[in-house]
Amino acid sequence: xRFFEGLRALDLTHVWxxxxxxxxxxxxxxxxxxxxxxxxxxxxxxxxxxxxxxxGEYWHHSVYFTKRNAGKRAIQVNLQEPExxxxxxxxxxxADMVVENFTPGVMERLGLGYEALREHNPAIIMCSLSxxxxxxxxxxxxxxxxxxxxxxxxxxxxxxxxxxxxKTGQTWIDHYGGYQGxxxxxxxxxxRARSGEGQHVEVSMQExxxxxxxxxxxxxxxxxxxxxxxxxxREGKVRGYYECEGVDAWVAVSVRDExxxxxxxxxxxxxxxxxxxxxxxxxxxxxxxxxxxxGLAEWAARRTKFEAARLLQEAGVPAAPxxxxxxxxxxxxxxxxxxxxxxxxxxxxxxxxxRYFSPxxxxxxxxxxxxxxxxxxxxxxVLRELLGLGDAELAGxxxxxxxxxxPEALMSPAAREGSPLPFEQLLEQRSILRIDEDFREVxxxxxxxxxxRDTRAGRER
Amino acid sequence: MTxxxxxxxxxxxxxxxxxxxxxxxxxxxxxxxQLGAEVIRIEPPEGDTVRLAGPFPEGQPDGSPDLxxxxxxxxxxxxxxxxxxxxxxxxxxxxAAGLIARGDLLVGDWREAGLLPFGDxxxxxxxxxxxxxxxxxxxxxxxxxxxxxxxxxxxxxxxxITYVSGAPDREPIALGVDVADYFxxxxxxxxxxxxxxxxxxxERPGFIDVSAHEVIGSSDDHSLSLYVGTGALRRRxxxxxxxxxxxxxxxxxxxxxxxxxxxxxxxxxxxxLIGRPDxxxxxxxxxxxxxxxxxxxxxxxxxxxxxxxxxxELLRRSDELHLAFAMLPSxxxxxxxxxxxxxxxWIEGPDGEDVIGPPLQLPAAPLRAGRPAPTLxxxxxxDLGATDEEA
Lengths: 461, 391
Hints:
The complex is a heterodimer of chains A (461) and B (391).
Chain A: E1 8-11, H1 17-28, E2 31-36, H2 63-69, E3 73-76, H3 82-93, E4 97-100, H4 106-109, H5 114-120, E5 125-130, H6 145-151, H7 172-195, E6 199-204, H8 205-209, H9 214-223, E7 238-243, E8 250-255, H10 258-267, H11 282-287, H12 289-300, H13 305-314, E9 319-321, H14 325-329, H15 332-336, E10 340-345, E11 349-354, E12 360-361, H16 379-387, H17 391-399, H18 408-411, H19 413-418, H20 423-429, E13 432-435, H21 439-456
Parallel strand pairs in A: 1-2, 1-4, 2-3, 4-5, 5-6
Antiparallel strand pairs in A: 7-8, 8-9, 10-11
Chain B: E1 15-19, H1 23-34, E2 38-43, H2 49-52, H3 71-76, E3 81-84, H4 90-101, E4 105-108, H5 110-113, H6 121-127, E5 132-137, H7 152-159, H8 179-200, E6 207-211, H9 212-217, H10 223-230, E7 232-234, E8 248-252, E9 255-259, H11 266-273, H12 283-286, H13 288-293, H14 295-307, H15 311-321, H16 331-336, H17 338-342, E10 347-348, E11 354-355
Parallel strand pairs in B: 1-2, 1-4, 2-3, 4-5, 5-6
Antiparallel strand pairs in B: 8-9, 10-11
């Protein structure tokens, strides 16, 4: 897209929240240069690597890393060394944005805080994403998505009745904070295009998530009322998960209003509920929810989760199968909407990855622009192109370790041996449901379909 | 902190028309308004789902609440203007068309827009050549599920979040907040900004189709990655990261706290935390795989220490040792949180109460949060620039 073409970001991000921001900017057309060093690679380069096999350059085999870093270039620069720092600041002069998600204080300690960057490029847009923000008494706290669902107040509202607070098993809050930052950077770019002025965009994951509590905050202020976890019930609704035919198969049902309630009673073969005084109003139904659960569970138990959800939706009732990872990949709606794109996973083969900017603009989707970069893959290319360095200078920098460092921590026998997950024991524990021996065929077939789709549409990637 | 109206803003000359259609649309428009856009909300005369959602102050009759007093409305519609129009009437639809034609952006759900007599995407583009339409809907405008209906719980189920959340021997869990609505609102906001950016270089898009299903569906942590890479299928196991323990909410002396640590420092620092330096070489401390499998043994080692200490004490130790422990604040705790107050996050509202501040900081063009919400239909189309002929 023209607005983003020619814009360049230096990407100091790692793990998830920050890499999401730069992945979206890359998809939109910006040039993203991921800055790492062998001594400090993005440690998700080894997150859930392919085949659970830590031989070879397994730090290039992570699907987790690939989808968050697709389409970027990667260089090695050691920011701990004065020479590396100077190199980085020269790159800042050639950049429009710097994005980072270190714990607050790290950039300043490196001598690369916003004030320092601005001296080298007054129009630079810096984006810092952190758990608690850049200021305030908690700002120094390291944060992970797993800790921010609790710290944002959401976990105290989530969980089983009487069972204490819980978080979910998916660290969606990193993704959420990343989108908040993405919009912030684009807003700053719009502001700069008009005023010429750069700025330091700042996202606190905690503050970004608090708007989701708006109704709860208001209820506390107006009525002094705090809610306890009561999975998955909500006042005014009929909601539940009901077990279906199959292994660990559930259908989710959420009846929000009178029309959906009437439709639900008919769909599950209980029209008599409409005459039952226990279920006369939404408040009555909430009070007698256990009785409804019994009837709904009995209805669901005789169907697959897909069939149950389809029957309810056809009647106008919000319902869905609870999908496992492989089922999300195979989802027909996502396939019809071209949500997955085929992308190369180095050494392994092509894999399907999600769109991170999913809206269709005038009917066109916005896929990733290429595979994820290998560690330092574009060091020479970028330093030649942006700083005009020659062969001798590049060789010198590499030799002195400024722009080259082997990922020694990942290459050691101990790391290789200690990195694979203990699949057998996790299966026994039941944190893994099963391992599909034929998964590669399943993935290859999906990729072939996606490639064919792109060929039909005349798209090359 | 919120900005005075005189401060520079990102979108000073932008007019957004919001066709009231739920939380996601209202949040996208709210964020555009915080960036300085003028937001005109077209609402049905009887109030929309956001106004009807409450929560309402005590003492209001259940059947006919004051539609200007709901908490969700007061947050999501702060700073907007409200026009009440019955789009089923030809005259009101024509007035709405006039407002849309003068807007830079129309934000709504295509299923609501479909009620307007304006026709499909192409017809909208033709009729409103200067306005980008941003549709934010449950499943987007196409595909076999375009006609399905959903709330956040349904979207969570389809996204893969639900399957990995909860205890292994019980039903899965839903989030206590409507995360899918806010995800979709964020993406509607981003898509709107992309449209404005593109318009500034002469490439204004006509129609943008945002699907809530896809936005939350892109938030996979490692379930899809794991399957694609290894064929292993993750399921719920106390909402834990696979093979990572602890990444959990744990009990302590006076409640619960979040026990998360940077992995590299784990053995030494956690051994120091519980005053058992002898355990630094214990496989439960220096081998994450061992810990993930024998997590109950690990709990037995750290449990006594945790149960003997309060949340405050544990957080203080976490700060000293650079761990990533976190509190589990309730809404009341957040409102009293010294960190959030020191950052100026809470803003004083019209009645002196604390209201939610901006969800991000743009110092050169500060966001405008915490403004009062309009009473239903408080602006007339004449106020908003309708021509005499339209009015």
